[in-house]
Amino acid sequence: MKKWVKKSIVIMVAFLTFGLITPTHEIWEAFDYNPSNRASIGPDQGTGTALAAAPDDTQIVQTEIQQDPVNYNALLLDAAKEQSYIKFGTKIGPKISNEFDAIIFPKMEEAIEMTVAGLDDSSLASLTISERPSGNYGEKIFNIINNETGNDLIRFHVRTEKRPQEGYYYNFHYHSAEDNFMAHYNLGDIYWEKNTPPKWLS
């Protein structure tokens, strides 16, 4: 077999497999000693036949990669909801879950999406959600953190408020790194009742 045909096949196999598979000597022996293989390649147009199949194979690989991108926004939102319910615990969670899902969480989603809107995939991939909501009557639900810098981008809190003649409310809000966490961005309130609510995480 001509050297340029062998080189072309090596390059084609390396390209199609992204260098993970390299042709062995057994391939060359099969082509050198089997006349039917030699005939299928042909003396002058061997690379034409081999390369004709290359675009289709490459297209299939690229299509599979494009169909399965990582959706970092969805991962953040799933983790945000999970951490919220961890904070609520088994005593508060069942009582406020419907209102949280219908009123508070959609606004939480909007705040997260606005915060990460300008980030590319590599920056999104470096974001994580803190995994320790505060217990007792602490406000912290979770923070979104940039792992590369160690800085918070946004902090979500819930404050227990006692209002005269009404009872207890949960005030959901967040603070943003854009204003150095000074402003209080309201997400909404959920009514508990007149009796003192349980502690978080209980």
From TrEMBL:
Top-rank lineage group of the source organism: Bacteria
One Pfam family matching this protein: YpjP
Annotated protein name in UniProt: YpjP family protein
The organism of origin for this protein: Lysinibacillus pakistanensis
